[in-house]
Structure formats: C-alpha cells, structure tokens
Write a structure and sequence with these properties.
Layout (H helix, E strand, L loop, with lengths): L2 H10 L1 H4 L6 E3 L13 E3 L2 E10 L1 H9 L6 E2 L5 H14 L4 E9 L3 E4 L21 E5 L6 E5 L5 E8 L1
Length: about 160
Amino acid sequence: MGLISDLPCLLSGCLLLSTLGEGAVANKTSTRSRCPPDYVYISGWCYVAFGDLLSWSEAYLECARLTEGASLATIRNEQDQQILGHLLASTTARKQAWIGLRRSNGYRWVWVDGSRFRLQPFDLLPWSAGYDCAVLDTSGDSPTWVAESCSNKNSFICQMPT
C-alpha cells in the first residue's frame, strides 16, 4: 500500500476509528477484505453510519439494499454501543441515528435481526407511549437509546455480516 492509496482512509478518519476500542477495527488493517471502505468491523459485523435523514422504515429498506443479511444495527453490548456512538459522531454531523430496535404490538421491543432484546447492561432513557422506534442518541456524555416516532427523520447505522 502506498501513501497515495491510503490518503482517502486518512481523510475519512479510518485511523481515528481504529482507536475506538478493542474489537473495533477500521478497514486500514487486516479486516479490509471483510468490510467495505468506510465501514467499521466489530465482532463479525461491518457497520456504517449514514447522514441521510430518513424515517425508520426508509432507513430499514436502505440497509437491506446493501447486501444480503444487512439491517439496521443491533447493539449487542455496552462496548458496541460506545463504538457505534463514536462512529456516528466521527462520520456524520448528526447526534441521533436509527438502530434496529422497534416496538412490536405496541409493547414488546424487538431487534430487526431477531436477536433477543435485553435491558441490561444499558442505561435507558424512559420510553414514551406512541414512540415505537429507537435511536442511538449521542448528545449526552455517553450514547444511550431514545424512543421516537418512526416517521421522524434521522440518520441511521447499518450492519452487515462479514
């Protein structure tokens, strides 16, 4: 790899992303073959944040168009939540992004990839009635989840298998 071929990665913050935490690896390293450029690798998944403002359903469809098995992001643990919060802050000017968590039948929260929703170890803000979709909110000291109306327009984070 020459300096010129590394320039886009340097300009887009790949080096910054490689310091986000253990398990988060930017494409500048050996995971380049696993994830497309501008994606971050975390535990078998490639993640990317989009600054486009879409409703939850529109964001869901955009993620699904990336590749087979792609979806809005599932946050599996607190470390992933921190890394994805940094990804959002470093690649978009947005403070909130849709994630793959949605209320089903008006009361039960489910992840779009079928993963089990667990309240622990996350520190959640109160959920509001009628707000059936979740965003990752980075406006505070650390990322958290907030329920919003699914028709609101937000940026979004997608995941795809490696």
